[in-house]
Each structure stands twice: as structure tokens, then as C-alpha cells.
Amino acid sequence: MTVKRRSELAKTYDFKTWRDITPMNISMGTMLHNRTGSWRFIKPIYEDKVPACQNACPAGNDIEGWIKLFQNGEFENAYWHLKREEPFPAVLGRVCFKFCE
After folding, report:
1. pLDDT bracket for residue 85 (50, 70, 90)
2. Do 78 and 66 contact (CB within 8 A), yes or no?
């Protein structure tokens, strides 16, 4: 395997006039609206909210808890967790409008 240098990979273009150059967007005004610099002092704010899938579920199922059990490999517990709130999950899956998606 041969390793090529950047100079060998770069393409060269010969422009005959300045009109051959691709047009670019150039800002002619100030950049005061684009605040640049160090933003390390800003920390995110944690907000505890209800997930959209759980908020939109017409049956009021605990989707977040069901998914956590399913991800941990507790398939039977996840099934009974869902079954506790919704006795007919297959029927709901067929008639639901899927607001959570």
C-alpha cells in the first residue's frame, strides 16, 4: 500500500479570469450577531419532562418503563408491565393512530 501526500491528492485548477471562480457568499457586514469565543462556562439545564411517546399514548401506558425493562433483557417483566396497564396490547397496536411516532 502506497501512502500519498496531500500535495499529490490535491487537485489544481487553472483560472483564466476571475469569472471562472465559483461564486461564494461573503458577509460584508459586522459579525456581532455571531457570537464566537469560549462557551465553556455555559452549562445545559436539565429538565425532567414526560417523553413524547408516553404523553401521546391514548391508553396512558408507561412506555418509558416498558422500554427500560425490554432493554435490560427482562422480556417477561416488560410484557407483564405493559399487560398490567393495557390488557389487550395487540388490539391497541392495531387501532392506535401512533401519535408517539
Report:
1. confident
2. yes
In a domain, 69, yes or no: yes
Handedness of CA 49, 54, 56, 59 (dihedral sign): negative
Does residue 39 lie in a domain region?
A: no
Provide, rounded to the nearest whole percent, the portion of the chain with pLDDT above 90.
8
In a domain, 78, yes or no: yes
Residue 78 domain boundaries: 58-95
> What pLDDT score does 50 carry?
79
30 located within any domain = no
Q: Cell 396490547 identifies what position?
A: 89
SS3 content of the chain, % helix, strand, coil (to 5): 40, 0, 60
pTM: 0.43
